[in-house]
Structure formats: structure tokens, C-alpha cells
Design brief:
single chain; 2 domains; 9 strands; about 25% strand
């Protein structure tokens, strides 16, 4: 009986110990698997986000590369040059009765009845800030068709409208100039209301390369008179020297 109390541990005890260890390991394995699964899930999510960003980024760059950049060079605000500051002046002589001695009787068609006596460049000389005949015509025709009271200029029968455009205009040889404009209504009955486009057309007839008032060598004009009909209406533009 006494010897039996000191028997060595049996194989049953060893087996029990092994089972307990396996049980502990088996109880830990699910946690490990869960942790690994969560870890790989996070990696997978991160990789998915990176893949989404990577797939979106090339499209964004491709779209931008297809757009041509527009370049804007901003030179800022600078003072006006002396030529740009120079005021263009119109002296409006108004509408007056036209004496019968001024009523030229010409042919029945529209034509240039006479030319002026001073040569004036047709186009502006921007290098000198000089304005030419065309600019003077455009300025006058706008003025006569856009009065200050908002009403068109009406020239009655036997009346004329006169105005002088000056300031910044020059004749041939850089001589300061003014242009004398007149519109004569030679009709016995009926008013004449100038139209801006027609006004420019009539007065630029003297600057046409086929007209007798045109200078082909220097591309200038003497101005002159454009007659509409025989006793209807005439448009006058006469360049002249101006010392003031």
C-alpha cells in the first residue's frame, strides 16, 4: 500500500497534459486567425482605396493634358500717350439757310462735282499719332447723326449743316489740319435727314482710288463734293490747314 503512493506519473497524466496544451493552443488559434483576417482586411481595403485613387488619377491628368492653356500677359495700367490724350474737336456751325448762289446745278447722276485744294493722308499714322481723312469723316458722320438732344439732325429745304473737325489731324507734310464738312439740301421741298452709313459712303467717294480727288502716290485725298442728283443734296469735305 505504501509503495503504491510513490508510483511514477502514468501515461494518463502525460496525455492529459498534452491535451490541455492542445486545448490552449486551439483556444488561441481563432483569435490569431481573427487578428490575421482583420489585418489582411485592412490591407485589402487600403489597397482597394489606392487602386481607386490610382485609377482615377490617370484620367484626371489625361483630361487636363487635353486642354490647351491660354496665356494672358497682363501689362497693367499705363498712362495714355500724348497722341491718345489729344482731344478731337468739332465746331458745329448748325443749320442755316443756303443762298441760291451756293446751289450748284450739275448733272442728273451722283458724282464728284469738285475736289479740294489740300492733300490729306487717308489713313491714320499711328507712329505719329496723326489722324487721317477717314477718321475725320467717321467722326463727323457720327456727330451729325447723333445730336446731343438725342434727335437726328434735320436739314430743311434750302438749308445746310456745317461743322469743322480738328485736333490731331494733319495735311501732307505734317501740317496741322482741320476738315470743313457741309451738307447742303438743295431741294425746294422736303427735309434731308443724314444717315450715318450713307454719310460715310458719300464722303469717302473722294478717297476712292478711282476718283479724281485721290492721290495714288501717297494714298491721300483732297476731299471735295459728292453731288446727289442735280438739285437734291450735296456732301462736302474740305481739308484745310489749321494753325490753332
Amino acid at each position: 500500500m505504501a509503495s503504491s503512493a510513490f508510483l511514477p506519473p502514468s501515461s494518463t497524466t502525460a496525455t492529459t497534459t498534452n491535451q490541455e496544451q492542445q486545448l490552449k493552443r486551439s483556444s488561441l488559434e481563432p483569435s490569431t486567425i481573427t487578428i490575421k483576417t482583420m489585418h489582411f482586411s485592412k490591407i485589402a481595403i487600403s489597397l482597394g482605396l489606392l487602386a481607386t485613387a490610382a485609377s482615377a488619377a490617370p484620367r484626371s491628368f489625361q483630361e487636363r493634358s487635353s486642354i490647351v492653356a491660354r496665356e494672358i500677359v497682363d501689362l497693367g495700367v499705363t498712362p495714355l500717350s500724348a497722341g491718345e490724350l489729344e482731344k478731337r474737336e468739332i465746331i458745329d456751325l448748325g443749320v442755316t439757310n443756303d443762298g441760291f448762289e451756293d446751289l450748284d446745278k450739275r448733272g442728273n447722276s451722283n458724282y464728284i462735282s469738285s475736289c479740294g485744294s489740300n492733300w490729306m493722308p487717308i489713313e491714320d499714322d499711328k507712329s505719329k499719332s496723326h489722324s487721317g481723312y477717314r477718321t475725320a469723316v467717321e467722326q463727323y458722320c457720327y456727330h451729325v447723326t447723333h445730336s446731343q438732344d438725342g434727335l437726328p439732325t434735320v436739314i430743311g429745304a434750302g438749308q445746310k449743316h456745317a461743322a469743322i473737325v480738328k485736333g490731331g489731324y494733319f495735311l501732307k507734310g505734317d501740317v496741322p489740319a482741320a476738315v470743313d464738312f457741309e451738307i447742303h439740301n438743295k431741294m425746294k421741298d422736303g427735309d434731308h435727314t443724314p444717315n450715318q452709313a450713307d454719310c460715310v459712303t458719300y464722303l469717302m467717294k473722294m478717297a476712292d482710288s478711282s476718283s479724281k480727288c485721290y492721290g495714288s502716290k501717297n494714298k491721300d485725298t483732297k476731299g471735295g463734293t459728292w453731288q446727289i442728283g442735280s438739285d437734291d443734296v450735296s456732301y462736302h469735305a474740305l481739308p484745310m490747314s489749321n494753325s490753332t
